[in-house]
């Protein structure tokens, strides 16, 4: 059986909405058991699913974006996130953990509870599409300030991640404001030199933000702040353009419903949330951070994502790769 | 007469292509004189325009992205950029300067030749659309490393810029990885505190990259590296989505030509290059940096942009505002 724990509380949307995603996933895979961290407001009676494959963990949704990570960790051990992670840590049969809570608090709690592989600095890595080809961005927000030596760590973790995803010798690019070696902030220029000299990765040079979706890169390495700007900007600008295309359709005598279907069919490529969440690379067990604005569809997709990674023995392979770092 | 100097050499495309944009602009405004920095390969004979309103400045296109800015400035005074800027500096009747050359070299040369207003640090500010509403990003790449005190300078210059563009009390946001005051890299968190305490601007808090195109901000303040990521990511991801929409149209029985027209009609909103260039705020005369991959259309639009800014007495108003800083 594949056992996945899902924290349904840290998100903007109500757990009753999100729970639909859990039900859908349980009905898809009959070897799936979900541990759902919820509060007393969840009503599971109205859903049709195999109830023997749902374990309810009663907790509180008392962590918000306004809590500081360490304070939340120490003061709120009854929260869905901290309570859930503690159970997850102690039960080897549970293979994955999903939360929509605040990034910083997930990071701190996962590090303190689950521990880091080889004491490295974890990073958040979402998968996006460039054409039909998937690539990852490391880091997209686990570290707001990144030291130079962490860039090559991110490159190695991203390489290990893409190896598990079936990509041999992934092409690693460094996000910068120009392709030339001389371009970038001081730290990015230093990182370039480190990456260039790193024999264990396939470093291909700098990449500019306007080229990221063109398919050259398998791994885009950046500090967490820039990665967050990149990721959210892709998400936001494609969303706005999509809405614009729909709004203009009438002018060109294109049927509203048809253009909406067309635009929605592309959504998955540019909003990684529709596909699942970002993997927290570098901690001892599989942790996926889903979007704070997750819907039931996000929860469903993230459970499927976790299920597939677990089937691929993701965490064992990542650990093996990271231990070589 | 409005006199604008255009450096046709630093771009990726050939001056003969770009010159079409000059001709088109000359034919649009009969009070426009263009000073074109070109080399001996330009053939103006085949074009139809009022030749009395074109001044040719013979120079060399010997600056590339691989030159270091100060070296290029000192070693290449016969280049179109350095020679052009020197003529521009000494002729008060010329009101604007446009180049598609490398950002760093334009910045260094403009600062050294034209001088800075009040010795402040210049920043590059492009205008983008959020809906029908224009906003600017300051800085988008003049400074790869930004000190904390420069964020409030960028906010003030952006405010002055949007004032000239007709926006009263522009809403200033700080680009960050979360809306909460506690979010951001160390320098962004410090900048937040500075901006919050700055009485001369209308600071509205942090903005995330996925919200930038939603219309809340008139000025988005950021370090030049992040601004470059943001700007190029908007440009690149909307371009890729646009191509995807066109490629999928057939599947939905939408006519190829119609969907291409629709998508192209929106292009101007997300690629500031189609509208002109980024303004180099903080130097003593009007300088516009157009895209390195400029086409004749870009050149035309950038001349129109410069023409309109000059008509609005842009540089006098910016100077007045900046001198109060």
Fold and architecture overview:
Two copies of one chain form a homodimer. Chain A is an alpha/beta fold and 325 residues long. Chain A has two domains: 1-120 and 282-325, Isopropylmalate Dehydrogenase (3-Layer(aba) Sandwich); 127-271, Isopropylmalate Dehydrogenase, CATH 3.40.718.10. Chain A is 44% helix and 18% strand. In chain A, the strands form two sheets. The first copy, chain A, has a seven-stranded mixed β-sheet, with helices on both faces. In chain A, helix 6 links the parallel strand 8 and strand 9. The mean pLDDT of chain A is 93.
Describe the main β-sheet of chain A briefly: 7 strands, mixed
CATH topology name of the largest domain in chain A, in short, is: Isopropylmalate Dehydrogenase
Distance between the termini of chain A: 32 Å
Provide the gyration radius of chain A in Å. 20 Å
What are the low-pLDDT stretches of chain A, counting only 5+ consecutive residues below 50? none
Largest interface: A-B, 61 and 61 residues
What's the CATH H-level superfamily name of the largest domain in chain A? Isopropylmalate Dehydrogenase
